[in-house]
Amino acid sequence: MNEAPHAQREGEAPAEPRFSNRFRLGGSLALPCAVIAILLLAGLLTCRSYAADAEFQQALHPREWSFPRDHGRHSGFRTEWWYFTGNLRDSAGHPFGYQLTFFRNAISPQATTRPSPWGMTDLYFAHAAISDLGDPQFVFKDRLERGRPGLAWSSDKTLEVSLLDWSAMQGNGSIHLHAAEAAFAIDLTCSEGRGPILQGPGGVNRKGREPGQASYYYSMTRLRTAGSLTLNGKAYYVEGVSWMDHEFSSNALAADQTGWDWMGLQLSDGSDLMIYRIRDKASGADYLSGTHITPDGLPHYLSARDISMEGSHAWKSPSSGGVYPQAWNLKCTGLPDLIVKSAMPGQELITSASTKVTYFEGAANVTDENGEPTGEGYLEMTGYSASLGGSF
Question: What kind and span of H or E run contains 176?
Answer without folding.
Answer: strand 174-180
